[in-house]
Amino acid sequence: MNKVFSQIKKYWLTNLITFLVSLAVGAGIFCIVFFTRSRSMIDAIDGATLGGLIVLLFGLLMMVAHFGTFDFLVFGFKQLIALMFAKNPKKHGQFTDYRDEMTQKRDASSYNFIAVIFAGLLLSIAIIVLEIIYHLG
Questions:
Q1: Tens digit of pLDDT for each residue in 50-68?
Q2: Among the residues of 67-97, which ranges form H helices?
Q3: C-alpha dist (Å) from residue 41 to 9, 29, 44, 135
Q4: Residue partners of 56: CB distance under 8 A and separation at least 6
Q5: Are 117 and 63 in contact (CB under 8 A)?
């Protein structure tokens, strides 16, 4: 029972750190864009848009990769490199099966991309608020 709670605690701590790092990356991109330009409201909107979209698109790319879209490329290149550096290339017993390897990989991975997507959506809400403030003011 205690082991289950420690795994849950580790999962939430990992997602919290991922979320905070994603927010920091978005805020860093915002600061770079905002402080290198004329510091107007349009520059703030541009920086928030760029930071939010980069974080959101990175989270979506993590999601697509998690569900196995690029697995065949990774597996193929790994097998090609193993074949190139094999001592006896005619002996194929050392290679793994695609289905077995990808099943083990998905079982071991977690859904860390949710925290990144949530950070990107939070930054997107900031973009909408800045747009409303700009157009009302």
A1: 888 999 988 888 888 777 7
A2: 71-84
A3: 41, 16, 5, 10
A4: 117, 120, 121, 123, 124
A5: yes
